[in-house]
Amino acid sequence: MYGDGLDSACANVLQHPEWRFICLIDSALEMNTTTLRQQIENFFAAGSAAVGDPTPVAAFEELRNALETGEVRSAEPDAAAPTGWRVNAWVKQGILLGFRLGHLAASGSDLSFVDKHTYPPRKFTPNQGVRIVPGGSSVRSGAYLAKSVVCMPPMYVNVGAYIDEGTMVDSHALVGSCAQIGKRVHLSAAAQVGGVLEPINASPVILEDDVLVGGNCGVYEGTIVRKRAVLAAGTVLTRGTPVYDVVHGAVLRAEGDTPLIIPEGAVVVPGARAVSKGKGLEWGLSVYTPVIVKYRDEKTELSLTLEDLLR
User: Fold this and answer.
1) Is residue 155 one of the residues assigned to a domain?
2) Which CATH number goes with the domain that contains 246?
3) What is the C-alpha separation between 153 and 286, in angstroms, rounded?
4) Cβ distance 145 to 162 under 8 Å?
5) C-alpha R_g of the chain
6) 220 and 300: one domain?
7) Are 158 and 301 found together in one domain?
8) Residue 65 sits in a domain of what CATH number?
9) Predicted model pTM
10) Angle formed by the axes of helices 89-101 and 17-45, to 10°?
11) Axis-axis angle for helices 54-69, 89-101 (nearest 10)
């Protein structure tokens, strides 16, 4: 999307006057982002030498603003990528650069905060269309929240996160750094979506459109949850935990550079598998494992009608 040259489709329509203006805007944004990327990469590589220079701070603030408007993302859909998502490592470098450049500073009026001055708490206005209910929630600067996102207190959204339209972040929920949350997702109470800043090239946690995450769920270590999947309350997904699909008779695992991927429409519940050797077998022990028990159907859809009422 950014930094790869003028999109070929855009180039083809430049000959049509009615499209020329739009394409020129896209081209300008792309060139600006390419320049910003080069600056961030250079300042990140400079290490401590960049500290104290106002130029790296200005570049970081430009990146932070682009993250807040959704113009730049730490990861974005890419049909050519093996997982359907491309990680923008330079964006993660920029976020880490912000921590390196920042010094501790007090902020806030009614509530007092002390954090790196490069990451003040975000402030919202009614015209942005984001609903933040009173009660102790916090959104760090450099996070994108689309219109119609609802934040129920207390909750927290970290830098680099992207939350798309119609999503609800319920009480005690966490959206970690660089996590990508799609449209109409529901993060139920105490759901934890892990953040991934390092390693730089690692995929962040991704929840695609219309995913329902039940209470006390945890999604970590770059897991991708495809569209319309349902995670029942208490489900925990990590890179090292296999997921047993009893519908298709398959075991899903993360392998190499490929993260754990939950299929589209899967309904995942907490389960257990027997320990097959040693004292575990002798004592009749079992260990936790997520289990795909079905795929979403009409009955599953009816059970989710509460979502419309909550909005």
Assistant:
1) yes
2) 2.160.10.10
3) 36
4) no
5) 21
6) yes
7) yes
8) 1.10.166.10
9) 0.86
10) 50
11) 130
% of the chain exceeding 70 in pLDDT: 85
- 105 contacts 115 by C-beta, under 8 angstroms: yes
> Residue-wise over 247-257: b if at least 16 C-beta within 10 A, else e?
eeeeebebeee
Q: Burial code of 34-61, b = ≥16 C-beta within 10 A, e = fewer?
A: eebbebbeebbeeeeebeeeeebbebbe
Q: Would you say residue 24 has pLDDT above 50?
A: no
Structure token digits, residue 64: 């932070």
Cα 253 to Cα 193, 238, 243, 259, 290, distances in angstroms = 19, 9, 7, 8, 11
* Average pLDDT for 285-300: 91
Instruction: Read off the tokens for 168.
Output: 């609800």
Reduced to 3 states, what is the DSSP secondary structure of residue 54? helix
Domain limits for position 61: 19-101
Q: Does 286 map to a domain?
A: no
Stretch among 26-30, 81-85, 129-133, 288-292 having the lowest mean pLDDT: 26-30
Same domain, 215 and 73: no
The number of distinct structural domains making up the chain is 2
Asked if residue 177 lies in contact with residue 143, where contact means CB atoms within 8 angstroms, the answer is no
Are 38 and 86 in the same domain? yes
Are 274 and 286 contacting, i.e. CB atoms less than 8 angstroms apart? yes
Predicted local confidence at residue 201, as pLDDT:
80
